[in-house]
Backbone:
């Protein structure tokens, strides 16, 4: 996962979220959001697995989503 | 998985699948071939034509098979060579893009407005008609909100004036009673995969006596009207699927109506701010389109997908880009509201347990998204 800017997970404090993690938050919660979950916290919050989210990220890329 | 996007496509019926399989693996002859294998294929096509004709109150000679609803719509619209065409502003893109193509050729097109429920009015149609109006195309039921148009009323008016009338009935056929003679239409489009048939088979009803130049050239299939080797298996599936849908229509309508009511009631009980789009008293039984304040339909749809639930943000053809639905915008919604809508469309294979699961997951996803935004 590529690093693009210094954004931290507001739940666990994980440093430097990846572009995919930031894109996932914007895609699934809202483009205007200011705080972000890391992949693990996102999965826990929405009660899904990290693997399912990674699959979803690949699907978004496949569809040409500009957030990833 | 819970599939609640039956307006996009449907699962093929088990019995229909068995019928079509025969024509892929055993009776796979070309319907134009003169030996027995081909003759059997030809007979199967003609039987399907009969089944479709009976289902919509037409003559078999008035039924043509195409590759899908888009081809049927494009065929009718592209036949206009001059003059003026009228279409509603909430048509499917296969009609709208055909209209744009006509405009590029110098043909005038008027796009009729709809009211806040998505209904075209006869009065606005009367105002739009010109002395050179050649064709009117108004969908029978909308694919995003399910609103049913007053086609019979419009058909009667147009017939008196000898103006050709086409209706895109892709969402309606197999789901509500559709009898072409009662509707007063000259052309009608249907698509097999919308009523538990197979993808790749469209239907075009053309009233006997109406001229329609071919769109595709080649062999003499479909009485010389539509060239190309027949999709025999798909056509067989269309015949059986439409018969099955019409036979079960009353029971399925009652079931789907209860599902939609339970969905609206269940979601509204926990999220009172929702807006239900379309005409509550005059829409397809299985479709409900809902605006959720403060979240995007895209977010909800993808979170539901992660839970194994398939719904749509608008029509399947435009999902994937970030443009608001043209249908919802024409209803008078703001761009933000239009982007906050999801369409749930139930079908014959859904049950009330699934409806309850959908409602619970929508409410949960909605609250989690809102909380995460704080």
Residues:
């Amino acid at each position: 996962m590529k690093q693009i800017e210094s954004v931290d997970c507001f739940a666990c404090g994980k440093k430097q979220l990846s572009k995919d993690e930031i894109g996932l938050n914007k895609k699934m919660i809202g483009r205007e959001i200011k705080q972000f979950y890391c992949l693990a916290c996102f999965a826990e919050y929405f009660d899904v697995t990290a693997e399912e989210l990674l699959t979803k990220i690949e699907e978004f890329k496949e569809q040409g989503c500009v957030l990833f | 998985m819970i599939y609640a996007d039956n307006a996009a496509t449907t699962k093929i019926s088990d019995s229909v699948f068995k019928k079509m399989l025969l024509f892929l693996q055993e009776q796979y002859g070309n319907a134009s071939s003169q030996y027995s294998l081909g003759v059997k294929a030809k007979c199967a096509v003609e039987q399907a034509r009969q089944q479709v004709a009976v289902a919509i109150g037409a003559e078999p000679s008035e039924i043509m098979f195409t590759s899908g609803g888009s081809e049927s719509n494009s065929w009718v619209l592209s036949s206009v060579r001059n003059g003026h065409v009228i279409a509603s502003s909430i048509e499917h893109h296969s009609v709208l893009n055909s209209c744009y193509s006509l405009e590029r050729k110098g043909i005038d097109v008027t796009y009729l407005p709809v009211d806040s429920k998505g209904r075209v009015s006869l009065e606005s149609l009367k105002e739009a008609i010109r002395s050179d109006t050649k064709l009117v195309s108004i969908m029978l039921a909308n694919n995003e909100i399910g609103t049913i148009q007053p086609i019979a009323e419009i058909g009667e008016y147009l017939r008196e004036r000898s103006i050709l009338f086409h209706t895109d009935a892709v969402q309606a056929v197999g789901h509500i009673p559709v009898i072409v003679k009662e509707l007063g239409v000259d052309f009608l489009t249907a698509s097999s995969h919308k009523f538990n048939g197979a993808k790749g088979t469209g239907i075009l009803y053309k009233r006997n006596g109406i001229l329609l130049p071919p769109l595709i050239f080649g062999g003499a299939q479909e009485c010389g009207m539509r060239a190309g080797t027949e999709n025999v298996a798909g056509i067989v599936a269309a015949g059986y699927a439409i018969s099955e849908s019409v036979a079960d229509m009353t029971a399925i309508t009652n079931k789907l109506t209860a599902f939609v009511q339970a969905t609206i009631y269940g979601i509204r009980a926990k999220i009172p701010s929702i807006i239900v789009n379309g005409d509550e008293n005059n829409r397809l039984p299985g479709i409900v389109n809902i605006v959720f304040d403060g979240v995007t339909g895209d977010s909800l749809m993808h979170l539901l997908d992660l839970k194994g639930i398939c719904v749509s943000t608008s029509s399947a053809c435009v999902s994937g880009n970030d443009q608001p639905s043209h249908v919802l915008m024409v209803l008078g919604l703001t761009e933000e509201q239009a982007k906050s809508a999801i369409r749930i469309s139930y079908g014959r294979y859904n049950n009330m347990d699934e409806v309850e699961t959908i409602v619970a997951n929508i409410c949960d996803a909605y609250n989690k998204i809102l909380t995460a935004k704080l």
Notes: The first strand of chain B starts at residue 2 and ends at 3. Residues 249-270 of chain B form the longest helix (22 residues). Chain B has two domains: 2-9+249-373, 14-247. Chain B has 13 helices and twelve strands.
